[in-house]
Give the backbone structure.
Amino acid sequence: MIVVVLAHPYPDRSFANLVLARALDGLENVAVRSLYDLYPDLAIDGAAERQALEAASVVVWQHPIYWYSTPALMKLWFEKVLTAGWAWGPGGDALRGKRCLWVATTGGDDIDYSPAGIHGQSFDTFVPAVRQTAEFCGMIWLEPIIIHAARQLDVAELEVLGAHYRARVAELAAEESSPDG
Amino acid sequence: MDEHAFLVYAAIYLCAAVVLVPLASRLGLGSVIGYLIAGCAIGPFGLGLIREVDAIFRFAEFGVVLMLFVIGLELDPTRLWALRSSVFAGGSLQMAASGIVLTAAALAAGLPPAAAWVVGFALALSSTAVAVQTMTERGVLNSPMGRAAFGILLFQDIAAIPLIGIVPLLSTTPGEPQGPLWLGVVKVAGAVIIVAGLGRYAVRPALRAIARTQLRDVFTAFALLVVIVTALLMEFAGVSMALGAFLAGVLLASSEYRHALETDIEPFRGLLMGLFFVAVGMSIDFALLAANAGLVTGIVLGFMALKIVTLLLLGRPIGVPGDQRPVFAAALAQGSEFAFVVFGVAGAAHVLPGEWNKVLTLVVALSLVVTPVLVAVADWLQCRMSGSEREPDQVEAEEGGVIIVGFGRYGQIVGRLLFASGIRATVLDHDPDNIEVLRRLGFRVFYGDGTRLDLLTSAGAEHASVLIDAIDDMDASLKLVDLVQESFPRVTIVARARDVTHWRELRQRGVLAIERETFESALRTGRRALETLGVRSYEARERADIFRRHNLTTLESVLEGWDDEAQRISRARTARIEFERQFQQDQEEFERQIGSGWNRARSN
């Protein structure tokens, strides 16, 4: 089972997000959990989330980049779901060995994310916090899918990226025959 | 007739209607044909079960009066003003053109000039009763063609009055002396002013007061009283009763009780209109028809053909879309019930030679019978021409709208949130005090029992996407849910539950969006208490969230087995124990989710 944890507060207003979300339509063994739809009042059900993750061999975190990080509800999800004794610390090995795929969209392009650009840093600067979150829980960090300048892409370009995303997830789902322990 | 005769007649009429109307409807002929056939069957020239055709006609005429009242209710003064060009331009054009063509035809047929003139213009009139009923049944009354036709019919109702007045003046023999014209005008103007004044300053406050008593029957009685008094007043002033009732309807159209009035009058209107058509059927003299078969058929076909051609040609200048013109012409081609009166007066004044009076009455009656068939044919033709289904009926509530039933303390908050989001819900409530205040705030609020199918229908439930059941009474609330699920399965119900029992009843009916009315505010109160005790407000919110989730899970889990009475009773007995246990569980759950995380985090 692949669990996609999706965090977009206004999915209808993001064309890129729409294409990416549809890219997974109909894939077998893929469960999408749209956090802003499940928890509009931000009252994350930690138990339900943990239960869903336990069944997964691959966890996908998909969201737009807000302020060099995840949207607030995704961050809250880390806090409420990845608890001590379950995800980390003594006895906390529920996620150990599961693989983690990060799929993020940004507003800026390569130039914006460079020392000369408006963000003053390469995007790589902002990856470690998320990566370490996964790795602290013992998950295996996969090569992330980062889509820059998502708003400037046209439909055809987005479809190509969507197909790429779908292929990655389908490939991971196919490897499921030997799930990690 | 003694009271038994009345009941016997009523039984005969109702029996014929109950048998023949559904049959005619089933055959796609419309209910009008059914009533007409029923009339032929039971009338003096059929089985002869009923002979007092004239008395029944006079009684049934009230059906036409009620029909125009109901139509008036749908047209507030602004909408009526929008109709002015189709009434005055369309109406006068149609009367002039059809009148002149038919007069010429009558002259050519050898009638003397005065008689030809009377016949021509009398036959130019169309039957409001038949045309409107037929168009309503086909759902075209609100199409451009329906509005144009209705404008013409309205003009004819006005034009018929001077026509009936002038006929005796054409007589070669002296008739009754007529009052001066100015007196007539003054009387009509006076009556209109009285009706308008009473409507605004007497009828509306009275409706409000009566609605407040919650006596449904009195409300209905008062509605009928308003129509009858207006009709009588207008007739006294020399205007037709139907026109008077129409005016009364228009004056009450912007009232908050519009839907309730419509709902209450509707059954009377339906039955009396039926009686009217039955009376038309009864008046068909088959002996006279047999004796003059060729002549009568010739006149029916001839005059209707001339009217149809004239109407088809007029369609363009008065703005009827091309593909709707056949139905437009067919709907207005028949003679009018006013023509019976005109021919009667003309016969009495010796303007028409004796036999002509009877023959022409028969002609008009037959033209009424033919109309529904003619319209059905034209409708078929229209579908062929446009190659598609006709446009859907226009309903007042917009497509995908919201209806709120029950607009007290609860519904109002819902409505105001929607209103603030730019959604104008249609609101039904039975408390007149609420209605007054809310209308002033700009809500579209209608008075009436929201659990009545007809009221929901006229509020547009068929086209709504959401219905909010905010009724405080549990039985009424569940009745509404049953009704909506039965009649408007497309509509999503969002419900207010009084308590857990109500919640379960709603859930068992398949309603998914339910909020217990005290639950959320009680949770908030609990949060306030926790905050006061020193719990941080964010944590207090989280505790409330956990409590809510656990509570709902528990509710859902005991849903099964609710039908089992023994189980339910035992549940009630153990309710207290269960409640305590539940509290304990809540606390454990909370410790598990929040408390423990902190301890482990420190020990790590």
Residues 77 and 112 of chain B are 43 Å apart (CA to CA). The longest strand of chain B covers residues 492-497. The interface with chain A takes residues 542, 545, 548-549, 593, 596-597, 600-601, 603-604 of chain B (CB under 8 Å). Confidence is low (pLDDT under 50) at residues 388-397, 596-604 of chain B.
